[in-house]
């Protein structure tokens, strides 16, 4: 009896957490507000017949499940203080997605997210995905030649320091605004910010966190970290991976 009560309580808590995490926001444009019922795509837990074992306690999230350092870890944290190791790392499981490449799991999650957006009448497009070390070398050199090193380092990441090199980062667009700050104000941009976590994506460079991430607000740049971590970040209102994992802020390159 006591056990049943505990299970019931935990289930209640979980339900409460689920229903409170995505308040329906008024659509300023007044267009697709019928998105009132947000995606039913979140995997429903087995609703019928409660199993004998109680569900795992939700409150504690194990922050050590995956490596933050291994370049092929879904949780790898890459910033201006944490280059990929090795610098020339290339993922082994890249797959094609619309003529671009992402790691297999991220590619599937991108397909799922854009499909869910489409179901709400929103067209979220993939603008950029995996970028190789060599590509970044060329891009960085071009920027240095055109604008000088200081400006180049604001515009593009040094080779080996770009999250795009992990195969887990993507730039998305929509609403007539691709890879621009105005994406944040589009219905697509707001949807991605609100619902990306349900598919394992986070807005990696949020507004007002440049002192932590080293990058100004990039509402279009999303990073795949898996549903568990993405929803935990959203649930706890944590802006950045650095803050969640207690890593040093990385406002710029060292030295
Ligand atoms: Zn990007």
Question: Helices and strands in order, then pairings?
Answer:
Blueprint: H1 2-20, E1 94-97, E2 100-103, H2 104-119, E3 125-128, H3 133-147, H4 149-155, E4 169-174, E5 177-178, H5 187-195, E6 201-205, H6 210-213, E7 218-224, H7 227-236, H8 241-245
Antiparallel strand pairs: 1-2, 3-4, 4-5, 4-7, 6-7
Helix pairs in contact: 3-4
Bound molecules: zinc ion.
The site of zinc ion has 4 residues, from strand 4.
Structure description:
With 255 residues, the protein is of the alpha+beta class. It has one domain: Muramoyl-pentapeptide Carboxypeptidase, domain 2 (2-Layer Sandwich), CATH 3.30.1380.10. It contains 8 helices and 7 strands, in the order H-E-E-H-E-H-H-E-E-H-E-H-E-H-H. It has helices at 2-20, 104-119, 133-147, 149-155, 187-195, 210-213, 227-236, 241-245; strands at 94-97, 100-103, 125-128, 169-174, 177-178, 201-205, 218-224. The strands form 2 sheets. Strands 3, 4, 5, 6 and 7 form a 5-stranded antiparallel beta sheet that branches. A two-stranded antiparallel sheet has the order 1-2. A hairpin with a 2-residue loop joins strand 1 (94-97) and strand 2. Helix 3 (133-147) packs across helix 4 (149-155). It is globular, with a radius of gyration of 20 Å. The termini are far apart. It binds zinc ion. Zinc ion (ZN) is lined by residues 164, 169, 171, 221. Zinc ion binds next to strand 4.
The tally of structural domains comes to: 1
Kindly, what is the distance between the CA atoms of the first and last residues, rounded to a whole number of angstroms? 62 Å
CATH topology: Muramoyl-pentapeptide Carboxypeptidase, domain 2
The chain-level mean pLDDT equals: 84
Q: Please give the count of helices.
A: 8
């Amino acid at each position: 009896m006591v056990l049943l009560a505990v299970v019931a309580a935990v289930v209640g808590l979980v339900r409460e957490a689920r229903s409170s995490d995505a308040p329906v926001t008024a659509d300023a444009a007044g267009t697709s507000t019928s998105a009132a019922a947000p995606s039913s795509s979140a995997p429903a837990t087995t609703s019928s017949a409660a199993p004998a074992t109680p569900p795992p306690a939700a409150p504690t999230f194990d922050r050590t499940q995956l490596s933050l350092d291994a370049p092929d870890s879904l949780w790898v944290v890459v910033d201006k203080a944490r280059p990929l190791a090795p610098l020339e790392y290339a993922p082994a499981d890249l797959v094609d997605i619309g003529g671009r490449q992402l790691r297999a799991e991220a590619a599937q999650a991108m397909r799922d997210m854009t499909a869910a957006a489409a179901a709400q009448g929103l067209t979220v497009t993939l603008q950029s995905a995996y970028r190789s070390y060599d590509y970044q070398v060329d891009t960085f050199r071009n920027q240095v030649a055109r604008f000088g090193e200081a400006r180049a380092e604001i515009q593009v990441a040094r080779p080996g320091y770009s999250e795009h090199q992990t195969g887990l980062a993507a730039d998305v667009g929509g609403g007539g605004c691709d890879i621009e700050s105005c994406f944040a104000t589009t219905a697509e941009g707001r949807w991605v910010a609100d619902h990306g976590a349900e598919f394992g994506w986070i807005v990696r460079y949020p507004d007002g966190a440049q002192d932590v991430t080293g990058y100004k607000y990039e509402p279009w740049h999303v990073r795949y970290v898996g549903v568990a971590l993405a929803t935990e970040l959203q649930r706890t209102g944590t802006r950045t991976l650095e803050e969640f994992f207690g890593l040093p802020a990385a406002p710029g390159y060292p030295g």
